[in-house]
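Look over this one:
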Amino acid sequence: MVGAILDMAESDQLGSIPSANTIPDLRREIDALMAPVEKAEELPVDGKDVIRILGIKPGPKVGEALQVLKDKKFDISLRGREMTKDDAERILVEWFKEAGQ
């Protein structure tokens, strides 16, 4: 969505005289801001790992668990660390116990 808006804004700027196309700079700034967010979405485990670690069947709980990990990974990254597989397993087991499963 952001890309489409920037495309439209860039077209508008290119059509003006004199051309003052600042959109490429804005795209670079947005990309730089989004990089940590995109990296935070990458997890050291996947759904199959969640199923194995928690001993559950495929279903909505797997998605919930992955979302918990994404939230925790972002918190960990703000402290300058990367989430490891061991971290993910510990977080999953704690979350599962707290949820009363």
Remarks:
- The CA atoms of residues 44 and 85 lie 5 Å apart.
